[in-house]
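User: Before I run my own analysis I want an independent prediction to cross-check against. Here's the chain; please return only the structure tokens and, at the end, one sentence I can use as a sanity check.
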Amino acid sequence: MKTFLIDDNLIVKQTFTLNAEESHHAIKVMRCRQHDTVRILNGKGQLATAEIIDIKELLCVKIIEVNKITERSKISIGLANIKKRDRMEWFLEKAVECGIDSVFIYFSKNTEKSGIDLGRLNKIAQNALKLSLPQNLKTGLNHSTTIINS
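Assistant: Structure tokens:
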């Protein structure tokens, strides 16, 4: 089942419009059609089953059922900024797939590269979350990964 992210709280029989990026991905890439059933995740411990009710420029869905993902202890990890961007992205993707809740990126006096693109890292974390969802739900993991630049 296709999975999409929404930032709001999920309520049964409520309708949502996905943002432009998620709508484009759903319509053009995933080829979602009206009356398809999809999974909606809010990253706050709620997972919903929804039906697509309207497809125009933005995708509109109606929530059918809402489930709460069971709580577990929070797992955080700290990481010094890595010189090669692709290694940092790979680490973040695998950390999210394993269920890490927070990744703290810090800069030490020996850090060679000073800047990071938090927007790109957040997008990678969201995509990893969508892909790892079915596997992580079996173990009851919460899917709210936070990237903090300290």
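Sanity check: The radius of gyration is 17 Å.
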